[in-house]
Amino acid sequence: MPQVEENEDTVGLRRQVLERLRVARYALIVLAFGCLVLALLPKIVAVDLLALFLAVLVTWLLTAVPLPQPQRQDLRLRTTAAAIWPDTSMKMMAEALAAPCFIIDRHAILRYANKAAVDSFGSVRPGDPVSFKLRVPELLALIDAVGRGEEGETVRYAERGPTERVFDATVTPIRIAEGRRRPDFLLVLLSNKTEVVRIERMRADFIANASHELRTPLASLTGFVQTLLGPARNDEVNRERFLKIMLEQGERMARLIDDLLSLSRIEMKSHVRPDTVIDIGEIVQHSVNALLPLAKSSGTSILVHATDRPAMVRGDWDELVQVMHNLIENALKYGRAGGTVDVSIRFEDGGDGQPGVAVSVKDDGPGIDAAHIPRLTERFYRVDVSRSRAQKGTGLGLAIVKHIVARHRGRLSITSEKENGSVFCVWLERATVTENLPALELKEENQSINMSQN
Q: Its Gene Ontology molecular function terms (predicted)?
């Protein structure tokens, strides 16, 4: 038996001996009184001794009879039960925790799980080993150590599966009786750190990618400068070619720095929602007009389908222009040469019934594989790196779009099929319409822009 149980047995034996001595003292008092009476008698006969013996015997028997003690027995039963199952107050405390937690005994047997634990790990059955739900060697080793009386601590572990989850597991001992080294229960608290770890990884990847993207054109510039200062000092033909490449690399660095600064500014005010009422149709018109030269160079037509009345939203004009410009420019760059880009504005309620405006940009390009879609809005993520750089992309355009839409409390959705093009849709909450917006019809050579009625 463990040391705690042996000490408790010793204490129980001492209590029994003291109880017997307490009972015997009454008989000893009668015996002492009888001896005093006999000492005062002038003559002691056998009957006197027999009477004294019987008096002591009767006193002993009467005081030795145990009295019923139902309260003490109930207390012992309650103490035994409390050592096995947590009480109601302990369960209420567990339910008050927002994080998943399990209450187990020191033998790692599950006794209780709060609602958050059931939601995260599925249904549990009290009485099962906790290893049925938490199959983590490091955590099970920590539970065993704390169950033996060691101090609690925290371990981080990752669950591998369809989606990775990262938890910080803290094991804390719970002692009902004072003075015990081994706990009666253990509280296993699990804090979900998946999002924190993901952000840390994204930040590290962002720094690494930004450094790489800046270092590449910088290395190119340095190499050409050294060449022009050396072997090509007097080579006019190559000097002109090198200077053009250097200009392209400098422009690439400028675009990257501009996008980085833009992303930083958006993140700094992401908690402030714009409140200016603007017409999204005007923003689309402005972006299309700005991209007419690019569309003309590729022979692509832009078809704009507007609503029959102003599509008013609350937003920041410059930021929403940047969103539309990025989406339409991507459609022109990655769509089919000589094809069509459809820009549609329509009224559409959100999932919660909130009135809104949806702007979708559809190209007729080769489409995007489904495996890439969830990562398109990550910083510096490219489906085709060489094609992206050939199109002078920085890898930050869709990340900027995502952050701007999030600041406007909107939604960005992406759908695509191989060989059937891609659709990028931005949904924004609709504001009150205060004025009418006329339809727009513009044409320029092989470039057509039509505001048709929905």
A: ATP binding; phosphoprotein phosphatase activity; phosphorelay sensor kinase activity
Question: In which residue are the tokens 């004009």 written?
Answer: 317
State pLDDT tens for residues 330-356: 898 888 888 899 999 999 988 777 899
Lowest-confidence pick of 73-82, 398-407, 442-451: 442-451
Which of these, 163, 443, 117, lies nearest to 303 by C-alpha position? 443
Distances (CA, A) of 302 to 88, 280, 285, 391, 416: 67, 17, 11, 19, 19
Cα separation, 358 vs 280, in Å, equals: 10
**Rounded Cα gap, residues 169 and 142, in angstroms:** 10
For residues 442 and 303, is the Cβ–Cβ distance under 8 A? no
* Nearest CA-CA partner of 295 in 253, 328, 320, 271: 328
Check if 84-192 and 197-268 are the same fold. Answer: no
CATH topology of domain 277-453: Heat Shock Protein 90 (3.30.565)
CA 72 to chain centre: 50
Task: State which fold the 84-192 domain adopts.
Answer: Beta-Lactamase (3.30.450)
Strand order in the sheet with 185-192: 110-113, 101-105, 185-192, 165-174, 154-159
pLDDT at 101 (0 to 100): 92
- Other CB atoms closer than 10 Å to residue 310's CB: what's the count? 21
Q: What is the rounded distance in angstroms from the CA atom of residue 110 to the CA atom of residue 168?
A: 19
Q: Residue 390 corresponds to which amino acid?
A: A
Helix (H) or strand (E) holding 55: helix 46-64
Q: Look up the CATH architecture of domain 197-268.
A: Orthogonal Bundle (1.10)
User: Taking the alpha carbons of 268, 273, 277, 279 in that order, is the dihedral positive or negative?
Assistant: positive
CA distance 251 to 247: 6
Crossing angle of helices 3-40/46-64, nearest 10°?
150
Domain ranges of the chain: 3-67, 84-192, 197-268, 277-453
| Short-list 451, 446, 437, CA closest to 292 | 446
Q: Which band of pLDDT confidence, cut at 50, 70 and 90, is reported for residue 78?
A: very low
